[in-house]
Structure formats: structure tokens, C-alpha cells
Amino acid sequence: METVQAVKARKSMDALKTLSKPKAVVVRNGQQQEIDASDLVVGDVVVLEAGKYVPADLRIIESSDLMIDESILTGESLMVEKTHEAVADTKILAEMKNIAFMSTFTTNGRAVGVVIRIGVKTEIGKIAQSLASTKEEATPLEKRLTNFSY
């Protein structure tokens, strides 16, 4: 039998989980609806507004005064102006003015974009995957202390 305190704690945790789930506004069947970002698929049409996180890598197809904080990816402290207009093909993230990247933050304006990458295939997903696969190595001091202790 669960105690009252355990039940309250479980309810609090469930409430926190629903708050922390990223949401996305999509256009499906001609209607705007809010879904869990984890339910997005490549090809979904997503609506971005100021104050919202970008839920996946998106190619912007419509925009109005769109500014995005990409500091999580580029380290730049200034907001980046984004556009729906075509740009020259490049591998440099900071020059991809018509792409909104997952986990960045919309600070101004509105836009509509098409999902082009989700999950570990996104730019932030690639970074997370490379960090997870990096092997942690002992520092020289740790190695000497280990040798000293034997």
C-alpha cells in the first residue's frame, strides 16, 4: 500500500514530466494542432512563434521577422536572422539562414518550416551522439596517483 506522501510525489513527478515534454505546433489535414515533439516525422509542417523552441531541424518555407538564438550550436551570443529565401549550399551552420535547428530558441517573429531531420540525425543529435561515444581518459595526474597507490 502506498503512503499519501508517495502518491503525492508520484503525481508531482508525472506533472513535471508533462511540463518538460517539448511540444510542436503542426499543420495536419489543414488544421493546426499541438503535438509532442517526439511524434514529429520528416515532412511535417511546423509553425514557429517567438518564445518557442525549435522541435526538429526545419527548412523554413515562410518567415516574418524571424530571429533565433543558436548559441547552443554556434556559441554566438547574438540572435540570428532567418529567412525562407534560398541560400547558397554550405556546410557551415552559421551560414544556413533558411534552416532552423532543433533545440534552438525562437526569439522574434513567426515562421513555417518543413521537418528535414529528427532525433540523432539533427545537428544537436549528432553532437549528443559524438559526446556519448567519446571515451573518457584519465589525466596524467590520475595515472600517476593510480601507479603510486599500487
TrEMBL record:
Gene Ontology terms for molecular function: ATP binding; ATP hydrolysis activity; P-type sodium:potassium-exchanging transporter activity
Domain of life: Eukaryota
Keywords: ATP-binding, Magnesium, Membrane, Nucleotide-binding, Phosphoprotein, Translocase, Transmembrane, Transmembrane helix
Pfam families registered for this protein in UniProt: E1-E2_ATPase (PF00122)
NCBIfam families membership: ATPase_P-type
Subcellular localization: Endomembrane system
Membrane topology label: Multi-pass membrane protein
Entry's Gene Ontology BP terms: intracellular potassium ion homeostasis; intracellular sodium ion homeostasis; potassium ion import across plasma membrane; proton transmembrane transport; sodium ion export across plasma membrane
Cross-referenced InterPro entries: ATPase_P-typ_transduc_dom_A_sf, ATPase_P-type_domA, Cation_transp_ATPase_P-type, P_typ_ATPase
Keyword Membrane tagged: yes
Gene3D superfamilies: Calcium-transporting ATPase, cytoplasmic transduction domain A (2.70.150.10), Calcium-transporting ATPase, transmembrane domain (1.20.1110.10)
Recorded GO CC terms: endomembrane system; plasma membrane
Domain P-type ATPase A stretches: 19-131
Name of the protein this chain belongs to: P-type ATPase A domain-containing protein
